Amino acid sequence: YLNRIEEGTFGIVYRAKDKRTGEIVAMKRLKMEREKEGFPITSLREINTLLIAQHPNVVTVREIVVGSNMDKIFIGMFQKL
């Protein structure tokens, strides 16, 4: 990643560069430290909302990456210009 943008209740957002395309993207790492029962429902709701939202002011989800132990989850997003 290039730099940390902001931290909130459910995750930390980083500015990153896509190595394939060179595009600047946002990567949100979901906080999983307090989760004892798998994927947090709040994260599922956020991902679902981002996937169905079609608006110029809403980022587009490019990919979702899950670590092998479900301990790290990233949402890769970019802004349509």
Automatic annotation (TrEMBL):
Example GO biological process: regulation of mitotic cell cycle
Source species? Caligus rogercresseyi
Q: Which Gene3D superfamilies does its entry note?
A: Phosphorylase Kinase, domain 1 (3.30.200.20)
E.C. no: 2.7.11.22
Taxonomy of the source species: Eukaryota, Metazoa, Ecdysozoa, Arthropoda, Crustacea
Q: What is this protein called?
A: cyclin-dependent kinase
One GO MF term:
cyclin-dependent protein serine/threonine kinase activity
Of the GO CC terms on this record, one is: nucleus
The UniProt keyword set, sorted, is: ATP-binding, Kinase, Nucleotide-binding, Serine/threonine-protein kinase, Transferase
Read off the InterPro entries from this record. CDK, Kinase-like_dom_sf, Prot_kinase_dom
Family membership: Belongs to the protein kinase superfamily. CMGC Ser/Thr protein kinase family. CDC2/CDKX subfamily.
PANTHER family per record:
CELL DIVISION PROTEIN KINASE, CYCLIN-DEPENDENT KINASE 11A-RELATED
Keyword Nucleotide-binding listed? The answer is yes
Its recorded reaction(s) are: L-threonyl-[protein] + ATP = O-phospho-L-threonyl-[protein] + ADP + H(+); L-seryl-[protein] + ATP = O-phospho-L-seryl-[protein] + ADP + H(+)
Enzyme type, top EC level = transferase
Protein kinase domain location, by residue? 1-81
